[in-house]
Specification:
219 residues, alpha/beta, Rossmann fold, 7-stranded parallel beta sheet, 7 helices, 9 strands, globular
């Protein structure tokens, strides 16, 4: 099975790339980014692309499954407009180009609390991205909404470091209605994405608790 991966240089995307390359069900991974990742594997084909000219690379978007792990923060992107380009416009355009090439399923990373009607710009953008994928006409759309991600990031994010520290101390309290707010390992998110991609999963949204459960039940 051939797959497309956008965002392999990120936290979840990096772990997902590892899982895809280990999977016996995956024969070819086409990874797209502004630069190559430091991974060599006969199943991996890396493509350096210009995200502002995605249509120029459409001929490469041929596969059965599309994985979208693109994501930034307003601070890292530099402005709200640029953040929206990365977190909404790119996934929106990629999904439509991939559909034209026969992609049957997309599995994308969003965020806990994503809502197109939210007054919070970040959550509103994520919610609009989700809606754009559901409207894309790709037969199966799977959205994962992790809470705070745990794992080794390449860049330092002070707020998230504080969050990670508190999450490790207070994680035991995240039960009942709070279960979806419990921090989750980025590796667990990646493993759940692969499982949802390979199994006959219909269009759906999965929050953190369900992602943890999927991995625990399918180890």
């Amino acid at each position: 099975m051939k797959v497309l991966l956008f965002g392999a240089s990120g936290l979840v995307g990096g772990f997902l790339l590892e899982e895809l390359l280990k999977s016996k069900d995956i024969t070819e991974v086409n990874s797209f980014g502004r630069k190559n990742v430091a991974v060599k594997n006969p199943k991996l084909k890396q493509h350096i692309i210009d995200f502002e000219k995605l249509e120029n690379f459409q001929h490469l978007f041929e596969a059965e499954i599309l994985f979208i792990c693109l994501g930034s923060t307003i601070a890292k992107a530099g402005s709200k407009d640029q953040f929206r380009r990365i977190d909404f416009h790119y996934p929106f355009q990629i999904s439509r180009l991939a559909l034209s090439n026969g992609v049957k399923k997309v599995v994308a990373v969003s965020s806990l609390g994503a809502n197109a009607k939210s007054s919070n710009f970040y959550l509103k953008t994520k919610g609009e991205m989700e809606q754009a994928l559901f409207d894309s006409k790709i037969p199966k759309v799977v959205i994962v909404r992790p809470s705070l991600l745990l794992g080794p990031r390449k860049e330092f994010r002070f707020g998230e470091k504080i969050g990670e520290f508190l999450a490790r101390i207070l994680g035991w309290m995240m039960v009942g209605k709070l279960k979806n707010y419990k921090a989750i390992s980025a590796h667990v998110v990646a493993r759940s994405m692969l499982y949802l991609a390979l199994n006959d999963q219909e269009s759906a949204i999965f929050d953190s608790y369900k992602l943890e459960k999927i991995v625990k039940e399918n180890q």
